[in-house]
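Deliverable D4.2, example record:
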Amino acid sequence: MLKKLKEKYDPEFGMGDHMFNDLALSRDLLYEHRSRLPEGSPQRNLSVMVLQRSHWPFASRKKDVDLPLWMQSALAAYVEFYKSKHQGRKLDWDHSIGTATLKSRFSSATKDLTVSLYQAVVLLLFNESVELGYKQIMEATRMDEGELKRTLQSLACANKKVLRKQPVGKDVNETDVFYFNSEFTDPRAKVHINSIQAKETPEESTRTQSHIDSDRKHYLDAAIVRIMKAKKELTYEQLKTQTIEAVKNHFVPEVSVIKLRIAGLVEQEYLRRDEHDMNRYIYVA
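Output generated by the structure prediction step:
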């Protein structure tokens, strides 16, 4: 798979090696961790992926959620096992990308609900209470306000309403009260409940575009250097055409950006202009 990605889409897809390596190592670690647990232990249901932050596009979170004590105990046991294998390393849990399967008993039937970890934490509160106000849920989970509102909205206001709320409405307010919807029905035994994603702010959009532009500049630089190393010298038009061809499966660059990247590489002394033809570039070994 990695070979195909490199050949057809991105010759620089080296990061994929690290990502797939993380996944393989995580599976091996999880298998060993489970093998050390007693048969029938609930902790055998825990699934953990240990991913190096430098290789994955996940931002660190300033605030997360308070998990139930039995979940915290399962995570603590895994941390203890992990540190016995890798001393000096630190695990930072990111619950925002976690998932869970809950067995939920409704009046009509028992269903397996596949939900986000945030949704699971909220739903589990209703094992202990018939009704909960928004502020009570906030206090119990200590979730980010925006995240909590989106989570409750997905459970009580979307198509699959496993919670009911008063007053009825599409939005979640601080005065709302929530109830477990025992009358929920679905033809499937396994029900997936979608999360509601946060809308990207203008600042986040600008930051994302900045990262994309930066990555593309490095990608263009690498492509131009590879071409010139192979060809030794080319005219500007030849180099421009071959650069576009080299990166077309990745993105379509603007000609003005290619021109700037060539000028930057001349300044960094990867290339130089021909003394007799300023429109011809020569590779500097």
